[in-house]
Protein backbone atom coordinates (compact mmCIF):
# COMPACT_ATOMS: atom_id res chain seq x y z
CA UNK A 1 0.00 0.00 0.00
CA UNK A 2 2.84 2.40 0.79
CA UNK A 3 4.10 2.11 -2.81
CA UNK A 4 0.70 3.19 -4.12
CA UNK A 5 0.69 6.11 -1.70
CA UNK A 6 4.19 7.16 -2.73
CA UNK A 7 3.15 7.05 -6.40
CA UNK A 8 0.03 9.09 -5.69
CA UNK A 9 2.04 11.62 -3.69
CA UNK A 10 4.52 12.01 -6.55
CA UNK A 11 1.63 12.33 -9.01
CA UNK A 12 0.21 15.12 -6.84
CA UNK A 13 3.65 16.78 -6.88
CA UNK A 14 3.70 16.57 -10.70
CA UNK A 15 0.16 17.94 -10.93
CA UNK A 16 1.13 20.89 -8.74
CA UNK A 17 4.15 21.70 -10.92
CA UNK A 18 1.94 21.37 -14.00
CA UNK A 19 -0.60 23.70 -12.40
CA UNK A 20 2.12 26.29 -11.78
CA UNK A 21 2.96 26.48 -15.49
CA UNK A 22 -0.55 26.38 -16.91
CA UNK A 23 -0.57 28.85 -19.73
CA UNK A 24 3.14 28.36 -20.44
CA UNK A 25 6.52 27.77 -18.86
CA UNK A 26 7.02 31.52 -18.37
CA UNK A 27 4.51 31.27 -15.51
CA UNK A 28 7.05 29.15 -13.65
CA UNK A 29 10.01 31.44 -14.26
CA UNK A 30 10.81 31.31 -10.53
CA UNK A 31 11.90 27.67 -11.06
CA UNK A 32 14.61 28.76 -13.51
CA UNK A 33 18.21 29.78 -12.79
CA UNK A 34 18.86 33.51 -12.25
CA UNK A 35 20.51 33.88 -15.67
CA UNK A 36 17.32 32.74 -17.43
CA UNK A 37 15.20 34.96 -15.21
CA UNK A 38 17.36 38.01 -15.95
CA UNK A 39 17.21 37.38 -19.71
CA UNK A 40 13.43 36.97 -19.54
CA UNK A 41 13.18 40.35 -17.81
CA UNK A 42 15.58 41.98 -20.30
CA UNK A 43 13.66 40.80 -23.36
CA UNK A 44 10.28 41.63 -21.86
CA UNK A 45 8.80 38.17 -21.39
CA UNK A 46 7.66 39.20 -17.92
CA UNK A 47 8.70 41.41 -15.00
CA UNK A 48 10.06 40.86 -11.50
CA UNK A 49 6.87 41.96 -9.75
CA UNK A 50 4.76 39.44 -11.67
CA UNK A 51 7.21 36.59 -11.03
CA UNK A 52 7.45 37.44 -7.34
CA UNK A 53 3.66 37.44 -7.05
CA UNK A 54 3.32 34.16 -8.98
CA UNK A 55 6.02 32.51 -6.89
CA UNK A 56 4.49 33.58 -3.59
CA UNK A 57 1.01 32.50 -4.64
CA UNK A 58 2.10 29.14 -6.00
CA UNK A 59 4.56 28.21 -3.27
CA UNK A 60 2.00 28.98 -0.55
CA UNK A 61 -0.57 26.77 -2.28
CA UNK A 62 2.06 24.09 -2.99
CA UNK A 63 3.20 23.82 0.63
CA UNK A 64 -0.36 23.77 1.96
CA UNK A 65 -1.49 21.07 -0.49
CA UNK A 66 1.59 18.86 -0.18
CA UNK A 67 1.74 19.14 3.62
CA UNK A 68 -1.99 18.51 4.01
CA UNK A 69 -1.86 15.50 1.70
CA UNK A 70 1.11 14.03 3.58
CA UNK A 71 -0.46 14.51 7.00
CA UNK A 72 -3.75 13.00 5.81
CA UNK A 73 -2.03 10.01 4.18
CA UNK A 74 -0.11 9.21 7.36
CA UNK A 75 -2.74 10.07 9.99
CA UNK A 76 -5.96 9.05 8.28
CA UNK A 77 -5.17 6.59 5.50
CA UNK A 78 -2.40 4.80 7.41
CA UNK A 79 -4.05 5.36 10.80
CA UNK A 80 -0.76 6.34 12.44
CA UNK A 81 -0.88 8.04 15.82
CA UNK A 82 2.57 7.50 17.34
CA UNK A 83 5.40 9.95 16.76
CA UNK A 84 8.05 7.41 15.76
CA UNK A 85 5.99 5.76 13.01
CA UNK A 86 4.71 9.12 11.81
CA UNK A 87 8.27 10.45 11.64
CA UNK A 88 9.64 7.55 9.61
CA UNK A 89 6.70 7.56 7.20
CA UNK A 90 7.00 11.34 6.74
CA UNK A 91 10.73 11.01 6.16
CA UNK A 92 10.17 8.28 3.57
CA UNK A 93 7.63 10.37 1.66
CA UNK A 94 9.72 13.54 1.77
CA UNK A 95 12.91 11.80 0.67
CA UNK A 96 11.15 9.96 -2.17
CA UNK A 97 9.60 13.27 -3.25
CA UNK A 98 13.07 14.87 -3.11
CA UNK A 99 14.59 12.23 -5.38
CA UNK A 100 11.54 12.25 -7.65
CA UNK A 101 11.82 16.02 -8.06
CA UNK A 102 15.49 15.86 -8.95
CA UNK A 103 15.35 12.90 -11.32
CA UNK A 104 11.87 12.80 -12.85
CA UNK A 105 10.93 16.48 -12.81
CA UNK A 106 14.30 18.20 -13.25
CA UNK A 107 16.27 15.75 -15.36
CA UNK A 108 13.57 13.94 -17.35
CA UNK A 109 10.62 16.31 -17.75
CA UNK A 110 12.46 19.63 -17.78
CA UNK A 111 15.58 18.19 -19.38
CA UNK A 112 13.82 16.47 -22.28
CA UNK A 113 10.79 18.63 -23.03
CA UNK A 114 10.72 21.59 -25.39
CA UNK A 115 7.90 23.01 -23.26
CA UNK A 116 10.41 24.40 -20.77
CA UNK A 117 12.53 26.28 -23.34
CA UNK A 118 11.70 29.98 -23.17
CA UNK A 119 11.93 31.88 -26.44
CA UNK A 120 14.94 34.15 -26.35
CA UNK A 121 16.77 32.16 -23.67
CA UNK A 122 17.70 29.10 -25.72
CA UNK A 123 21.42 29.79 -25.34
CA UNK A 124 21.31 29.69 -21.53
CA UNK A 125 21.67 26.37 -19.74
CA UNK A 126 18.65 25.89 -17.49
CA UNK A 127 18.65 22.13 -16.88
CA UNK A 128 20.66 21.17 -13.82
CA UNK A 129 23.67 18.94 -14.28
CA UNK A 130 23.79 15.65 -12.39
CA UNK A 131 26.33 17.22 -10.02
CA UNK A 132 23.94 20.12 -9.32
CA UNK A 133 21.04 17.71 -8.78
CA UNK A 134 23.11 15.62 -6.38
CA UNK A 135 24.27 18.68 -4.42
CA UNK A 136 20.77 20.17 -4.16
CA UNK A 137 19.10 16.86 -3.29
CA UNK A 138 21.75 16.07 -0.64
CA UNK A 139 21.12 19.42 1.02
CA UNK A 140 17.35 18.94 0.85
CA UNK A 141 17.70 15.43 2.28
CA UNK A 142 19.07 17.04 5.45
CA UNK A 143 16.27 19.60 5.49
CA UNK A 144 13.65 16.83 5.21
CA UNK A 145 15.11 15.11 8.29
CA UNK A 146 13.89 18.15 10.23
CA UNK A 147 10.77 18.62 8.11
CA UNK A 148 9.67 15.06 8.86
CA UNK A 149 9.65 15.91 12.57
CA UNK A 150 7.22 18.77 11.92
CA UNK A 151 4.98 16.53 9.82
CA UNK A 152 5.09 13.81 12.50
CA UNK A 153 4.06 16.32 15.15
CA UNK A 154 1.10 17.41 13.01
CA UNK A 155 0.14 13.77 12.45
CA UNK A 156 0.12 13.08 16.20
CA UNK A 157 -1.94 16.22 16.85
CA UNK A 158 -4.44 15.26 14.17
CA UNK A 159 -4.63 11.70 15.51
CA UNK A 160 -5.62 13.07 18.92
CA UNK A 161 -8.41 15.13 17.33
CA UNK A 162 -9.87 12.38 15.17
Topology summary:
Layout: H1 2-20, H2 34-42, H3 48-77, H4 83-112, H5 130-161
Q: What does this entry look like structurally?
A:
The structure is a single chain. This protein has 162 residues and is mainly alpha-helical. The protein has one domain (2-161). Helices cover 74% and strands 0% of the residues. It has helices at residues 2-20, 34-42, 48-77, 83-112, 130-161. Helix 1 (2-20) crosses helix 4. The relative contact order is 0.15.
Tell me, briefly, the overall form: elongated
Number of domains: 1
Termini separation: 22 Å
Order of helical and strand elements: HHHHH
**For the report, how would you describe the main beta sheet?**
none
The beta-strand count equals 0
From the structure provided, what is the oligomeric state, counting identical versus distinct chains? single chain
Poorly predicted spans = none
- Radius of gyration, in angstroms, nearest whole number: 18 Å
Structural class: mainly alpha
Summary tags:
162 residues; mainly alpha; 5 helices; 74% helix; 0% strand; elongated
Brief overview, please?
With 162 residues, this protein is mainly alpha-helical.
Amino acid sequence: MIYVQLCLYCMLFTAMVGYSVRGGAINGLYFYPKAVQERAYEIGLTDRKTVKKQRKRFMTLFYIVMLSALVLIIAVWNNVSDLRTAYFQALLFLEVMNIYDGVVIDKLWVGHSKFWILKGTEDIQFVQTWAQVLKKRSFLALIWVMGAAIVAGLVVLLAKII
